[in-house]
From TrEMBL:
Transmembrane stretches, start-end: none
Protein family (similarity comment): Belongs to the arginase family.
Residues reported to bind Mn(2+) 1: 99, 122, 225, 227
Catalytic activity: L-arginine + H2O = urea + L-ornithine
Protein name from the UniProt record: Arginase
Keywords: Arginine metabolism, Hydrolase, Manganese, Metal-binding
EC code(s) of this entry: 3.5.3.1
Cofactor info, note text: Binds 2 manganese ions per subunit.
Organism: Priestia taiwanensis
Residues the record lists as binding Mn(2+) 2: 124, 126
Top-tier EC class: hydrolase
Length: 298
């Protein structure tokens, strides 16, 4: 892994409707993310937070694409920052914010990779489109947008279209999929390890298979939604779903990814301190980040 890490905070909460996830980047910083990474031998440059335009109640809302303009603006800025970090030979580590920010992160990363692989660690598919969304929340559409399906303002951010190919995506941890998302997965042949497969195969085999599946990519982005974890272990998230990945399975996955040296960029999203218990979820996020960057038990 690259020795320099660029930390980028994205205090975004407009991709969904539960306030508080905009404080995620601060919560993760308070949980000592920089210190942990420095102890592992990395140089960390904290680039601060992306500016988010505030919620405008007077603006006319599209019911099936809430806060489209603000999400587009923030993701464009984020894409530029991530792109510049990679240009600087630094590893972009993005802290959310809700999962709509993956539109910006992946837009910036994808410019540098012809065949970018994406590991989408999540209870959800985030594969809705304005036609299928049950909520109008863009955080439930961000993976579909990266695959080129959705509003053109979002799919065309940072000039490349589409950003990624369906055969280069692996979803891990899914247990809440909408009907339209199930159809999307089948139509595009997306590889999904639901909780069912994780239970049957074990996380170790799931990650081995994921690495083999992505071996033809030229970079791998990890997009980790904290709601992929079991809510008992990570309660501070806006859309918790029971029956998730355990604390230990999460760490094993990160440790195996670290050993593979495949991951070239990452983001940790959906930490909501208002819904959390004494910042536990941010602490869990920092632990997973440390494992991803090579922390070992012994
Ligand atoms: N990134 C997330 N937490 N996404 C939750 C999405 C929930 C639901 N599928 C929706 O489209 O609204
Ligand atoms: Mn998500
Ligand atoms: Mn989710």
């Amino acid at each position: 892994m690259k020795k320099n890490i660029s930390l980028i905070g994205v205090p975004m909460d407009l991709g969904q409707t539960r306030r508080g996830v905009d404080m995620g980047p601060s919560a993760i910083r308070y949980a000592d993310v920089t210190k942990e990474l420095m102890q592992l031998g990395y140089t960390v440059e904290d680039l601060g937070d992306i500016e988010i335009s505030r919620f405008e109640p007077s603006l006319e809302q599209e019911e099936n694409l809430k806060n489209l303009v603000q999400v587009t603006d923030a993701c464009s800025l984020l894409a530029t920052k991530v792109d510049a970090a990679i240009q600087d030979n630094s590893f972009p580590l993005v802290l959310g914010g809700d999962h709509s920010i993956a539109i910006g992160t992946i837009a910036g990363v994808a410019k540098h990779y012809e065949n970018l692989g994406v590991i989408w660690f999540d209870a959800h598919g985030d594969l809705n489109t304005p036609e299928t969304t049950p909520s109008g929340n863009i955080h439930g559409m961000s993976l579909a947008i990266n695959l080129g399906h959705g509003h053109p303002l979002l799919t065309k951010i940072h000039h490349k279209y589409p950003k990624i190919k369906p055969e280069h995506v692996v979803i891990i941890g899914a247990r809440s999929l909408d009907e339209g998302e199930r159809v999307f997965i089948k139509e595009h042949g997306i590889k999904v390890y639901t909780m069912h497969e994780i239970d049957r195969l074990g996380m170790s085999r799931v990650i081995d298979e994921t690495m083999a599946y992505l071996k033809h990519t030229d970079g791998v982005h990890l997009s980790l939604d904290l709601d992929g974890l079991e809510p008992h272990d990570a309660p501070g998230v806006g859309t918790p779903v029971p029956g998730g990945i355990t604390y230990r399975e999460g760490h094993l996955a990160m440790e195996m990814l670290a050993a593979s040296r495949m991951v070239t960029s990452a983001e940790f999203v959906e930490v909501n301190p208002i819904l959390d218990e004494r910042n536990r979820t941010a602490v869990v996020a920092v632990g997973l980040i440390a494992s991803l960057f090579g922390q070992k038990i012994l």
